[in-house]
Amino acid sequence: MSRNKNGLTSFAIVLTMTSCLAMGGIAPAQEYLSPAAVVADAQGKTLYIAETTAKQVAIFDTETAKVTATIDVGAEPTGLALTDDGTLLYVTCGVPDGRVCVIKTDTGKITRQFPAGYGAQSPVLSPDGKTLYVCNRFDDDISMISTELGKQMKKIPTLREPAAADITPDGKWLFVGNHLPHGPANGDSVACNVSVIDAGRSAFEIDIPLPNGSTGLQDIAVSPDGTFVFVSHILARYTVPTTQLERGWINTNAVSIIDARYRTLMETVLLDDVDHGAANPWAVACTSDGKLLCVTHAGTHELSVIEMRPLIDKIFAHHRRNRIQSERSRGGSYSSYSYGNTNASNIPNELSFLYGVRERIKLPGKGPRSLAIIGRKAYVAEYFTDSMAVVDISEDSRHKTSSVALGPKNPMTAERRGEMLFNDALLCFQSWQSCASCHPSDARVDALNWDLLNDGLGNPKNTKSLLLSHETPPVMITGIRENAEIAVRAGFRHILFAVRPEEEAAAIDEYLKSLKPAPSPHLAGGKLSASAKRGQGVFSKAGCSSCHTGPLYTDLQKYDVGTGNGLDRDRQFDTPSLVEAWRTAPYLYDGRAATIEEVLTTYNPDDKHGTTSKLTDSEIKDLVQFVLSQ
User: What is the CATH code for 1-122?
Assistant: First the structure.
């Protein structure tokens, strides 16, 4: 069974390569393709490639290394799943009224559409092909869809932004990766989780927390024998001040390994080298024989090829040594140590752990995302260069690579170049991170607190979304930067620890200015619900509108609203825009409030942050709905 990520919409037109070129290229002039997902048929002869910004799926012949046709789908695709016999392609569309389009591969026609949720992506077919599981990213749940009935049978809640999923070969367990941490940012451990669903019972089973600092989860893959689950994510070192980059001081990049049999975190392994980061791990995939694990690095434009058995053996050997040391030091039994105990293992801090079992391969294009493996060839979708990298990963191949253009090369606009630079860790000293490491998913949030050097040490602050940053000066939580242009350049110096040309900062400015708010999942048919309409009146009654004013819900001023703690006790904070507040949890400058309701109640005892203490419970609920609807 083949699986992967990226989607479709309401109509399909199959074009031959000749007719595409006659029309001026596979995509319309000046339109980028942005390949972000790929899935292969069982014979390895055909790849289906979701080309996001072109709103189409390309059909790629692996023998000729050419695009033979495209299917225009009218919306940005977000995920692909192919039946075992290759006759049906399921494509998710991540629009607010999320849906799945079913394409007959012999005709390229969309024959059916299934309803899903907001931000539908990462479709996964059950082994018998009767159930399609879809991650509804912004509804925080999973759709279970009957492929026979074309009907959504059930929704299963997850924690926060389910972004990737895979199922065990026996169809018993579905593993779902949540993109961001859930809950407050000032807790003892802040990390994204993997949700496990009992597919047989169609019910949630357990959440498996990843190590403290895990965020930006991008992909998940079950090994062919169903024994292990591999999860790609960032492992942030947010508990220390951002004073240097060496040895992964700020961000490291990792794959976590889950024991699928016991649904337990087995280990987390760093993909970085001692002096060379492997920023922004994205796709994970195994060869069909289970011998190799491949990981794309979207920030450093690389492919890691890891020998799976030696890796697992190395982990077990490390655990055995730890058990013996634990036995000797505490006089306890072997059962006192478990490999899910991160306190007992130092592997998540060992930058040299993969030495001898991993090869890092430089890819020819930019922005690798999804990959498909056919035999000993890896096909990698290169997002920013509209290309497909082909990598020979056989043992004695010296990893020969090539790059196939998926369409005509279009000149980069300033916005497009800025987006590429924002995601490019080669701008950073030793390539540890990119801007997108702390601002993933279109420059939004990582849900962590960081002790930046803007305002002294010892006062961490929650990552802000960069949406509307250029329109709402000053910037940073304390308004310490006069405008976003200054902040972008300061980010180069103090976060990436690099001096870069002015034109690169200017391009990133243009990219950030181009960002548009996504509609809230709390809207009803695109409009305020009855509760949110009532909340709009409460918003004025409580005095919220005096500071959160205008179309962006900010007066651009700073206030002491009584939320300061420690070194920030008497600090004035910039009035944040409420646009996309539904997407930016946790809240307050130190992320102590997991929800908007906590902002209005638990953390506003003196009514300095709006007069809310005398509101009824129903008024609070209505006010919450209004704020989350922006």
Answer: 2.130.10.10
Confirm if 185 and 590 have CB atoms less than 8 A apart: yes
Structure tokens given for 416:
């497009």
Domain ranges (residues) in the chain:
1-122, 415-514, 530-628
Separation between Cα atoms, residue 596 and residue 47, nearest integer Å: 44
Residue pLDDT, tens place only, 432-479 = 999 999 999 999 999 999 999 888 899 999 999 999 999 999 999 999
CATH number for the domain running over 415-514? 1.10.760.10
Is there a contact between 373 and 288 (Cβ–Cβ < 8 Å)?
yes
Look at the block and give the residue holding tokens 């407050």: 184
CA–CA distance, 123 with 117 (Å, rounded to integer) = 12
517 SS3 class: coil
- 24 pLDDT above the threshold of 80: no
Show the DSSP H helices in 152-206 as ranges: none
Write out pLDDT tens, residues 582-609. 999 999 999 999 999 999 999 999 999 9
What is the spatial distance between Cα 366 and Cα 440, in angstroms, rounded to a whole number? 17
Average pLDDT estimate for 3-31? 33
**Which of 137, 128, 189 has the alpha carbon at shortest distance from 158?**
137
Q: How far apart are CA 91 and CA 75, in angstroms?
A: 11
β-strand pairing of 573-574 with 558-559: antiparallel
Cβ atoms within 10 Å of 409's Cβ, excluding its own: 11
- As a whole number of angstroms, the distance between CA 405 and CA 418 comes to 21
How far apart, in whole angstroms, are the C-alpha atoms of residue 317 and residue 315?
5
Counting every residue written for the chain, the total comes to 630
CB 225 within 8 A of CB 287: no
Distance (Å, rounded) from C-alpha 581 to C-alpha 242? 26
Token pair, residue 608, equals: 């300095």
Distance CA 455, CA 535 (A): 36
Q: Which CATH class is domain 530-628?
A: mainly alpha
Number of other residues whose CB lies within 10 A of the CB of residue 168:
19
Residue 98, CA distances (Å) to 70, 91, 95, 281, 379 in order: 22, 11, 5, 26, 28
Q: Which two tokens stand for residue 26?
A: 């596979």
Q: How far apart are CA 92 and CA 520, in angstroms?
A: 19
Q: Identify the bridge partners of residue 236 per DSSP, sorted by sequence position.
A: 251
The amino acid occupying position 157 is P
Element (H, E) at 128: none
Between the alpha carbon of residue 4 and those of residues 49, 370, 506, the distances in Å are 10, 8, 35
Matching CATH topology for 415-514 and 530-628? yes
Q: What is the pLDDT of residues 48-58, one digit of tens each?
A: 999 999 999 99
Backbone phi, then psi, for 154, in 5-degree steps? -165, 155
Angle between helices 530-541 and 617-628 (to 10 degrees): 100
CA pair distance 20, 30, nearest whole angstrom? 14
E strands in 158-227: 162-167, 173-178, 193-198, 203-209, 214-222
Q: Is the pTM of this model over 0.90?
A: yes
